[in-house]
Design a protein that fits this description.
Layout: H1 14-23, H2 34-44, H3 75-117, H4 121-133
Amino acid sequence: YGRARVYTQWGDSEEYLDYAVQSCPVDCIEWVSRKELQTLEHVTQDTMYEANGQLPCPMAARADGNLKGVPLPDAWELAQKFEEKQARAQSQQSELMIRLNMDWVDKVKERIAKTLGGASEALRKAILQIKQRL
């Protein structure tokens, strides 16, 4: 029917999985890592599945004859875009954390300077001596 469904991922030995890959008449079975599988499942959950968890029929998406339909999205392309989006978000988060950390350090320095500004001369000298030893 132009569809495939796995009921138990990781349920059989690698040898049986290799037999399934080799016997697929249309070369539609791919080896993916667990991380890739999680990404593919995430990006296809909304776009690739119809009601009741059924995969969409590729024949209905053909644009010839009486079967005029919208082409199915490419799961690999969706996964790549998702990974790129996640990488950008992580990079932006890291940059934000660095800026926030620098702001925090500056505020602490200001508080220390303000606190030491009100300290006695003897205390400031003692602190400078300790700082020079470190």
